[in-house]
Amino acid sequence: MPNSENLKSKVLTGGIYLTLRNILAALLSLVSVLVIARILGPKNYGIATVAIGIFYFLIWTCRLGLNTYLVRQPNLPESGPQQVISFYNSFGILLCALLWTCAPVIGHWSGQGEVTQALRVLIPAVWLDMVGMVSIAMLERDLRFAQVGLIEIFAQLGNYAVSIILVIFHWSYWGPILGTAVQYVLQLGLANYFYPIGWRWRWDWAFLKPALHYGITYSSSDWILHFRALRVPLLVSGLLGVEAAGLIGIANRFADQMSMLRFIVRRMSISVMSRLVEDASATRRAVSTGMAYQALLIGPLCALFACFGIWIIPLMFGETWLLSARIFPLIALGTLISALFDLHASVLYTVGNNRQVAIGNFWYVGVLWLSCLLLLPVAGLWGYGLSEILALPAFWVMHKSFKYFFGSPSYKDAALLVLAAIPPLVASIFYSPLVSTSIFVASYSLVFLLHPDLQKIPKGLLASLKRKAAA
Which of 25, 58, 346, 419 has a Cα-to-Cα distance from 288 of 20 to 30 A? Predict the structure, then answer.
C-alpha cells in the first residue's frame, strides 16, 4: 500500500505539472503564432510550416523508440543511458549528413528553394533532440514530471522569444526556423542539468540489440501514425503550394491547442500504465469513462471555437487567413473522434499488442493519404478537411483489436457528447457566429436534457479535479 500511495502521489503531482505546462504552452503558442503568422502571411508561414513539419516527423521517428525503452525497461542497467547516448551520437551524425544531402528533394517538390535551406538549418537539431531525450526519459522513468515540464516550457519560451523577435525585425520565415533550433539547444542543456549523463562514443551491442528491437517494435505503429502529419509538407505543399500549407497549418495548430489535454493522457500512460495491474472489466470501464471525459473536454471547446472562428482568425491574422476558419470545423471533428481512441492504443501498448495498434494506424493513415491524393486536386483545401472525416471509419480496426483482448467498452456516453458537438461544428461552416452559437447551446442542452445520466460525467470530472486540488 505505501508503494501504491507513493505512486498515486507522484502520478497526481506529475499530472498537475504537465497540465499546467500544457496550458501555459498553449497560451504562449497562440501569442507566438498570432504575431508570426500575421506578419509573415500565408506564403512565408507556409515555408516555415513545411520545413518544421518535416523536422518534427524526423524527431518523432529518429529516436527509434530508445527513449521509451529507457522509461519502460524494468531491469535497466546503470550504463543503459550512456549506451543510448553513445549510439545516438554516432547515428545522429550519420543521419544529419544523409538528411543534409536529401534536403533539396523536399525543396524541389514544394516548389520553394527556401524550404531546402530552412530544413538544413533544422537538421542538426534532430541529433540534439535524440541526445536530450535520454535525460528526459530517465526523468520520466523516475516520474519527475515537474522537471520535465520545466525543461519543455523554458525551451519553448526560448523558441517563442527568438521567433517573435526575428520576425518583428524582418527575418521573415527564418524567425520560426531559428527559434525552433534554439528550442532544442535549450532542451539539451536543461535536460543534462536536471539529469546529467556522461557522454560516450562506444556502445555495447549486447545491450543495444534488445533495446533497438524493443524500441523499433514499439515505435513502428507510432511511425505510421506520424505519417498523418506529413500530408501538409508533402501533399498539400506539392499539390497546392506553400501558401495552402500555411492556411492548413494554422487550422491544425488551433485544433491541436483545443485538444491539448489528450496528449497529457497519452504521455503519462507510457510511464504509469505499465506499473498498474489491470483486469479486463476494469480496463473496459476505464476506457469507457476516459472516452467520455475526452469528448467532454475537447468537443465543446472545439465547437465553441469553430462558432467564432470566422471572426477570431481574420481578426487575429487578417482576412487572407479566412479559409483556415472555414476548414477548422472538419479538422476539429476528426481530432475529436480520433482522441477517443487514444486510450485504446495506450492499453494495447501496455499489454504488448503493438502489432494491433500498427494495423489500426495503417488503415487510418492509409485512408487519410489516399483521400487527400484524390480530393486535393479536385476540392482544394476542402479536400484536406474532408479526408479527416472519410478516415474516421478506419478506427473500427482499433475497436476490433481492443474488443478481442478486453471486450467492448461502452461508447454510449462518448458518442452522445460527440453528437452534441457535430451540429455547431457543421453550422459554423455555413452560418454566422450568432446562429452557430445558438445551435451549440441548443445541441448540448438537448443532449443533457434527453439523457440526464450524462450529468454524471461533468460532475465526476469536477469531483476529480476537487480531489486533486485538495491533495
Answer: 25
